[in-house]
Amino acid sequence: MGIAYFLDPSQDPRGFVDDDRNKTKNQIRKVAKRLGFSKDEVDQCFKEAGVFWNRKRDWTPKQRRTESRTAPLEWWGEERDKYPILSRIARRIFTMPPSSAATERNGSTHKYIYSSCRSQLGLEKVNMLVSLYWSHMEKKPLPPVVYNP
């Protein structure tokens, strides 16, 4: 969470308190290591994070509004020449799904289709049934929303 806040150009860096900035920069370093970056790239990423922080901290409120009009993923795509290593991490962070609900829903669908009654089905048939199931679900009308003031 701290990394996404740190890397989001629309967020004011003054939202960090005490040692949050250094902790987040160290978390970015750990992520870079886990992603298999070389030692030089990890060090470069750490430096880029500091440069980005200082640049973002110096923005005027007008600049912050201007920068926040662009989605973080798009912003980092545009800034990849200024922050070549950090932008790779940022683009990875901002493409991660915020929750596992979709994955769990899909697993639940597979469990429903590939039950003990249908355990003899091959992979191709199961995938076909899952596709049909979701296709059918997309065509169902959404329930009306009830508004009670």
UniProtKB/TrEMBL annotation:
HAT C-terminal dimerisation domain location: 63-132
GO molecular function: protein dimerization activity; zinc ion binding
Keywords in alphabetical order: Metal-binding, Nucleus, Zinc, Zinc-finger
Pfam families in UniProt: Dimer_Tnp_hAT (PF05699)
One cellular-component annotation, GO: nucleus
Compartments (UniProt record): Nucleus
Protein name in UniProt: HAT C-terminal dimerisation domain-containing protein
